[in-house]
Amino acid sequence: MAEQLEPMPTDWRRALAIVAHPDDLEYGCASAVARWTAEGREVAYLIVTRGEAGIDTLEPAKAGPLREQEQRASASVVGVSEVEFLDHADGVIEYGTALRRDLAAAIRRHRPELLITLNFADTWGGVHWNTPDHRAVGRAAVDAAGDAGNRWIFPEAGGEPWDGVRWVAVAGDQHPTHAVDVADTLEHGVRSLLEHRSYIEALTDEDPETYCRSFLGTIAQGAAESFGGRPAVTFRLYAR
């Protein structure tokens, strides 16, 4: 991250974040959401699955409702009250017209200017393989931003066309272009991630609070060298 990052645009009022699983937004992005909502902007979450396949020790029928509950509590910490879940199956989301239709319908409902999604490249930083769910949802979200504005694409999905998405911001991208100063909201991000306690306790033997503070703090401080020394959340920003 050698090049200096630009600040994210601020001339918008509504954003919609589309990700595959509960917790996807909390691994870094939620600190930026906390700043935006504190500034009076509207942010809504659309989660494509309920994360039911995410906890090895808990059967999906029990894990799904638990993770939905944790996601709603997590969103509340950063000022997000509108959290919508789709019912695509966790772990086996398929990129295609069915997914694009669902996401285009959501974009028409929420009418965002800023669309947020998660890294949909093959890898995280060129090192760790990304999941099929992340790749499918991120790619479909970008495509759905265009679909939503065309009344002749997915007319059966309902809603008036919305061609008002001005940017797509991709969190966790290996080559970010923009960033949000989270010096004052990183603590909100930590507390938001901590709401996913059941998932975190299944993921690591480390103390959950220590784990969350270390993970998010390392990412934010790593971005600081390219953002005037300020802890930050980074995005790759695409203009439409």
TrEMBL record:
The keyword Ligase does not apply. InterPro entries: GlcNAc_PI_deacetylase-related, LmbE-like_dom_sf. Its EC number is 3.5.1.-. GO terms for molecular function: hydrolase activity. Pfam families: PIG-L. It comes from the Bacteria. Keywords: Hydrolase, Zinc. This is PIG-L deacetylase family protein. The lineage of its organism: Bacteria, Bacillati, Actinomycetota, Actinomycetes, Streptosporangiales.
